[in-house]
Design goal:
Blueprint lengths: L1 H22 L15 H11 L18 H6 L16 H6 L17 H12 L5
Bound molecules: heme C.
């Protein structure tokens, strides 16, 4: 009986070890931050989650999120993206829950962490087209 428990514990430890090995595999951490981000990927996120309020008709806050040109133009209160400067980019601040910014989208669901990372990486890399 004792041996059975030792065997089971061994299997459990191997299992955990295996999961750690998988988590540290070649794909772990290779998220959007490292991969090259295309504006196209950013627009996809905006189209799904933001354009219903920030569309061409009557964009809220004067912020139209339908194309590279309108996103980089900004809104009533000026630019929403400053290349390489997250702290000056309301586009990023509003989706990441920064204080002083209304969370976007206003009434959930919040963007996936992955999508926030994509937008973060795009701005960090220079907010290019
Ligand atoms: C339900 C409607 C709605 C949706 C969806 C929405 N917004 Fe907004 N957004 C607003 C309104 C209204 C304002 C302006 C007034 C305000 O600040 O409350 C605004 C303001 C903003 C601002 C300016 C914030 C500031 O404090 O300067 C940014 C940036 C912004 N939105 C980005 C986004 C992004 C990015 C998305 C998608 C992830 C999004 N919004 C989705 C309604 C929306």
């Amino acid at each position: 009986m004792k041996n059975l428990w030792i065997a089971l514990a061994g299997v459990a430890i191997l299992g955990v070890g295996f999961q750690v090995a998988v988590a540290k595999g070649p794909h772990a951490g290779a998220g959007a931050t490292k991969a090259k981000v295309k504006y196209e990927d950013v627009q996809k996120i905006l189209t799904v989650s933001c354009v219903r309020c920030h569309g061409a008709g009557r964009p809220r806050g004067g912020i139209e999120l339908t194309s590279y040109e309108t996103v980089t133009k900004g809104g009533e209160n000026g630019p929403i993206v400053v290349a390489k400067d997250l702290k000056k980019s309301p586009l990023y601040l509003a989706i990441s829950g920064a204080t002083g910014y209304r969370q976007m989208p206003p009434r959930g669901p919040q963007l996936d962490a992955k999508d926030v990372k994509t937008i973060e990486a795009w701005i960090k890399a220079g907010a290019k087209k």
